[in-house]
Design goal:
By secondary structure, the chain is an alpha/beta fold. The protein contains 15 helices and 9 strands.
């Protein structure tokens, strides 16, 4: 019997277009569900949980900001954004409630704003863990999701207005955000010295029923910087894990052909124009599909049998493709524990059969 692959070897096999020993798995969840799952399974830490459920989750590495506090709001982060914990019944989310760019009117104000310094991070504390990592799990280093950050800094309504009526203002802010992350990520990748495997590149481009904005707007405001960031990562040998929620089909040619993504997450196939067979038909030879286990209906509200049926459907739909089994976004607090356990136990068994 061949030696089982490690989680990292499974991911790298898919990136290289080779068959793994079984369908790999990943794990996205809210803190509330994550802590509950560890309690109920009586495991002490994340690694023990992943081992218990055969989850091939990545390890993420980064450097903490160590510079001075540069914004007067007492709860402000390094960007000047302050957040409030909002309860929604079964859990909480931290929502941006202070938008430091909300009242800005000119590009000159943007240039004068105290943008954070990417050099003011604790790179020494980052260097040792990444250099000493044992390579058992795939290593994710670096992230870039600028439009979400701009919405937090500007306020979502004004940010979307800027797309149409003040695009030069929006682009000036996005230029500052890009410069920060290009410098920060570049430093992280240089320190990693070849041990970083992939980066997280993201922007939510779709709603439940269609794109959040037009293709030409995306190409003008967001595509150039995404392409540049991906090129920086690829120049250092990293693969691109790309996240977008919702009905984002119209953007895929640009993401695949121009940005050069290697993996698409989370495959919300219930959204308009995101049917699995069409995605597999058009992109199976070029990207990995990640996700597709529905966290809005099946996992929280379905029976264990329905979860396993959906899992089998996904195995069938993605049979011609490279697929990583995972929830199609964060598992929510109201999700029954037995449904999640059933998903991971079933894919561990059925994924081996599929790979044979």
């Amino acid at each position: 019997m061949p030696t089982p692959m490690t989680p990292r070897q499974r991911w790298l096999a898919l990136f290289d277009g080779q068959p793994p020993d079984r369908i790999p798995t990943d794990y996205w969840t809210t803190a509330e569900f994550h802590n509950r799952l560890k309690r109920e399974l009586q495991v002490q830490d994340d690694e023990a949980l992943w081992q218990r459920l055969h989850i091939d989750a990545p390890r993420s590495f980064g450097a903490a900001y160590t510079g001075p506090k540069i914004h007067p709001h007492p709860q402000a982060d390094i960007w000047g954004v302050a957040r409030t914990t909002i309860a929604h019944g079964s859990g909480t989310y931290d929502e941006a409630t202070h938008h430091p760019l909300a009242d800005f009117e000119t590009v000159e104000q943007l240039h004068a704003y105290p943008w954070p310094d990417p050099a003011q991070h604790d790179f020494d504390s980052y260097a040792q863990p990444i250099k000493n990592d044992d390579g058992y799990r795939i290593r994710r280093v670096g992230a870039y999701e600028p439009w979400l950050l701009y919405c937090d800094m500007r306020g979502m309504e004004r940010a979307y207005e800027d797309m149409l009526v003040e695009p030069e203002f929006a682009m000036a802010a996005l230029d500052h955000i890009f410069d920060f992350f290009a410098a920060l990520n570049g430093r992280l990748w240089d320190i990693a010295d070849g041990k970083a495997d992939m980066m997280y590149l993201a922007e939510d481009l779709g709603s439940q029923t269609g794109p959040l904005f037009g293709l030409e707007t995306y190409r003008k405001l967001l595509l150039p910087h995404q392409q540049q960031m991906a090129a920086l990562a690829k120049s250092r040998g990293l693969r691109i894990f790309y996240h977008t929620d919702g009905a984002a089909r119209v953007f895929l040619p640009d993401l695949v052909d121009t940005v050069g993504i290697d993996l698409l997450n989370p495959i919300q196939w219930r959204c308009d124009d995101m049917e699995r067979d069409g995605l597999v038909r058009d992109y199976a030879s070029r990207i990995i599909f990640h996700g597709a286990m529905d966290n809005q209906f099946t996992l929280p509200f379905g029976s264990t049998e329905q979860v396993i049926t959906e899992l089998k459907d996904n195995i069938a739909h993605f049979a011609p493709a490279r697929w990583i089994c995972a929830p199609c976004h964060n598992i929510q607090p109201l999700t029954p524990t037995q449904n999640v356990i059933a998903m991971y136990e079933a894919i561990h068994a059925l994924g081996v059969l599929r790979s044979r």
